[in-house]
Amino acid sequence: MTEKKSIAMAGLTKGRVETLTDSVFAIAMTLMVFNLRVPEVPAGSVGWELSRKLIGMWHEFTIYAISFVVLGIYWIGHHNHFHWIRKTDRKSLWINLAFLFAVTLIPFSTILVGRYPEQRDAIIFYGVNLALVGLLLYVHLLYATGPAGLVDPAMHPQVIRLAKKLILTGPAACLVAIIVAFFHPRVATLLYLLVPLFYVFLPGVDRRISRYARTED
Amino acid sequence: MTEKKSIAMAGLTKGRVETLTDSVFAIAMTLMVFNLRVPEVPAGSVGWELSRKLIGMWHEFTIYAISFVVLGIYWIGHHNHFHWIRKTDRKSLWINLAFLFAVTLIPFSTILVGRYPEQRDAIIFYGVNLALVGLLLYVHLLYATGPAGLVDPAMHPQVIRLAKKLILTGPAACLVAIIVAFFHPRVATLLYLLVPLFYVFLPGVDRRISRYARTED
Amino acid sequence: MTEKKSIAMAGLTKGRVETLTDSVFAIAMTLMVFNLRVPEVPAGSVGWELSRKLIGMWHEFTIYAISFVVLGIYWIGHHNHFHWIRKTDRKSLWINLAFLFAVTLIPFSTILVGRYPEQRDAIIFYGVNLALVGLLLYVHLLYATGPAGLVDPAMHPQVIRLAKKLILTGPAACLVAIIVAFFHPRVATLLYLLVPLFYVFLPGVDRRISRYARTED
Amino acid sequence: MTEKKSIAMAGLTKGRVETLTDSVFAIAMTLMVFNLRVPEVPAGSVGWELSRKLIGMWHEFTIYAISFVVLGIYWIGHHNHFHWIRKTDRKSLWINLAFLFAVTLIPFSTILVGRYPEQRDAIIFYGVNLALVGLLLYVHLLYATGPAGLVDPAMHPQVIRLAKKLILTGPAACLVAIIVAFFHPRVATLLYLLVPLFYVFLPGVDRRISRYARTED
Q1: Domain ranges in chain B?
Q2: I need a surface site. Which of B58, B104, B202, C66 has the fewest CB within 10 A?
Q3: Nearest to C114 by CA among C167, C4, C189
């Protein structure tokens, strides 16, 4: 009866939440490229004129790549988290929508910091945006694994603890970058570059998760 | 045989209607952010110049957030409604497409009211758009739960009545806001802000729905 | 073994073709609205200045609505057709991609005819685009129901015949509109308006299809 | 236990990877058309003025069509490849995201080469972009069929070998086009046109794949 009741209560399965989320991520990822403006060169220009201009855009390409990787991190995070979700309710949906709202702001922040790479304010805005995305995913994890009980009961407490730590690393690093931005804007930008690398090459995380899964058998 | 006949008649399952709807919502939600133009500051500007300009955009951020929440409300409404849908037919598809058409106009209305926040005409246009979205979802609910019989027969009459009331609250509030806009544009804008809050913190709705579900067992 | 062989041959189920198609339609439908430019009025303008400008855009709204409905027609057509599809092969995928290519051109044609509503050339371009979409869907139907045998063998020959006639009506009407455009551009525009209406209120089609389905039982 | 462990390790099924990929492709395919700017003609222009301007855009239409077909090739390639995928892990997801990143750059490259069709630099940039997409798909195939063992064990070694050869043809052709671009930019453009044709009319590939499938039975 439990499942029937939960369906009657919310009437929402996780399938559509995932489709909406995947689409929002896909659009945010793809549309940032439309802010890369094709450089202008005179019609009859010869030599490496156009290449020079394209290389001159390296900063915009880099910030685009970073934002893409950041979106990738949070998409994987959302995917990992929702793998354990069994049902949804109204509150869970609104937390997820707030998370998506913060995600849709990333292209704006990216363009902002892409245009003003050395302005402290832009770097802080970018950091606050990224931190917000991470915090909202954290809030959803907290809510779903809490009394609402939306996750699979088989989810090992150690896996939950690890997931929480993993998700909080992002906002924590952003906080550091924001503080650093007051003194050394360039160093802060570097930090944004390091965080993605940390996530991509997550040292041993999957091994630890699989250890808990093994002991569980 | 009933199901086989219905499939032969319409040849349409609800899966693709949901995918189309989710995608349209995802695009409308994500693309509004591309109308937030990055502010212009002189290259060598110092202090909080950029921050001041960003804070000066508070009105555009607010209206974006409202529209996002409104889209969220109707997405959840559509999701809740389609949870009960068992089959579709040609009329149902066209009502849903009309609903999606009104949804795609929301980014336009949002930009309009974002640029002319104090203009009565913009506030009315926005209200008419939002009311239209709600009314078309209501029309679909009316049609699906009516003689066409597209919903699960297990859907409790009280749940249907509650869903109808819930969906009509939005257009009703928009009507009030439109009337108020003739006299106090600013108050009307405030009303648009209150309606989302009402939906997000729906007082006790899920509890009442679950009560009917329980008595049903 | 037949199914296993077909999977080995193409390695493609219809699920992803449908997702790609639904997404392309959703984007084309939603993005056309971003070409509706918010009208410019002086900051302190009073009275119905903004409303007058919005009403002055009626032509753009109309052409947007028509294109939306046309996309809706072909989406429903694609949906109805793919309901019967059991497997895909490389040729089928490329016909479908050509169909999607023509679909992605509709926003361009719509903007073109929206800006030059009385120009014969724009009206012809629009008609050729719409006709192309319909013809490519027809080609896919022809291929899938032909020797390739991609549809469910239970699909009644009468349903196939009816589907073919239905799909060809669109391109046929476009051909008439294109010819008329040489003499009376305005009348041609009217024709584009009538075709969608014909499809939306398809007289008795579902009844006839269900009749064949019934005799089939 | 193997499957359970793999779920615990990655927590990721292939469904959402496919949805994300399909959406990114749909957006990239659809949005390129928004760079086709509607030509400007005087309000009262008569004759074939508008048609002449539209025909004058043939180059932009051609490059759009080529990019669309190229995206279609890689979408089909990805689809064929993922048909055999049974599970995913973190590394596989990041290779796929890198692949998608290269895909999102195609609209930019397309606009670039559409505006500077005779500039060597633009032609090289376009070629490098296309080659990158192909190479990253190749890397994923290599990884998934390698020690990670993400593909169905029933995938015949000959099918793997054929798939690898097929995917590498694209980057190889791009390399040739890039070299040619240094001497004859126009010939290089022609090469980009030939590669898609080769893929669309893949001579006998499906027949060979099905042969291996048959011997397998």
Answers
A1: 12-216
A2: B58
A3: C189
